[in-house]
Design goal:
alpha+beta, 4-stranded mixed sheet, 9 helices
Length: about 230
């Protein structure tokens, strides 16, 4: 049997890339990681993702798959060991719902809050806090001393992998953007989940140093604010 070739095009500080790495590691899949320079995009990236020209891109035997949530589902469908999504159709549908909620209401909003200021940022932060309260409600209903993760009795699952970026990135983005979203008093179940998530042996070595990330995201914020000021 021909050996499978798995390659991941990524960027070291991208939470979207890190999700895919977690999924690959969770499945025990060996892969080659290729760091991209988004100021000088490689021909491989441009041909593999001609629509968005962004990372992550997973290349499986030369075939490209793009968008982190799509990639995670592809990984789960192609490699059957250690299922990421629930096997039950209803539970799988619920996991997809919450993954989409996280992506639309939290991930995208956090990215917007990072690169805006004034009234626009205030509006987005208000919406972010409301979304976090909704997620806290789901965490309160789902998690307990015996069920530490959204994946239930099987441990880490789809929602955990999609949400996991908040453990490493939110504090950095809050500091750089000058706002606060996460509050242990208002979201105790989410904070308990975060504490458990970062201690998972698969996750812990992949967490990034805060100081290095702060410098990087300061550059991202200033670049976007500079562009906005020129319009």
């Amino acid at each position: 049997m021909q050996e499978e070739q798995v390659k991941l095009l990524g960027l070291w500080f991208s939470p979207f890339v890190r999700r895919v790495e977690w999924a690959l590691k969770f499945k025990g899949i060996e892969y080659e990681y290729v760091e991209e320079d988004l100021t000088n995009k490689s021909s491989l990236l441009l041909t593999s993702n001609p629509v968005h020209k962004k990372v992550p891109v997973l290349l499986h035997n030369g075939n490209p798959i793009v968008e982190s949530l799509v990639i995670i589902e592809y990984i789960d469908e192609n490699w059957k060991q250690n299922p990421i999504l629930p096997q039950d159709p209803h539970e799988r549908a619920k996991a997809r719902f919450w993954a989409n909620f996280i992506e639309q209401k939290i991930t995208e909003a956090m990215r917007t809050a990072l690169v805006t200021q004034g009234e626009q940022q205030e509006k987005v932060v208000k919406e972010l806090k409301e979304a976090m309260e909704v997620l806290e409600g789901e965490a309160a209903a789902k998690l307990n001393d015996k069920t530490l993760f959204f994946g239930g009795k099987n441990g880490l699952g789809y929602v955990d992998i999609v949400l996991g970026w908040i453990c490493n990135w939110v504090e950095v983005i809050e500091e750089v953007g000058g706002f606060k979203v996460l509050d242990p008093q208002k979201q105790p179940h989410i904070h308990k989940w975060m504490a458990n998530f970062v201690e998972v042996p698969l996750i812990k070595p992949t967490l990034l140093p805060k100081e290095k990330m702060v410098v990087c995201f300061q550059m991202v914020r200033q670049a976007h604010l500079g562009l906005a000021a020129k319009k």
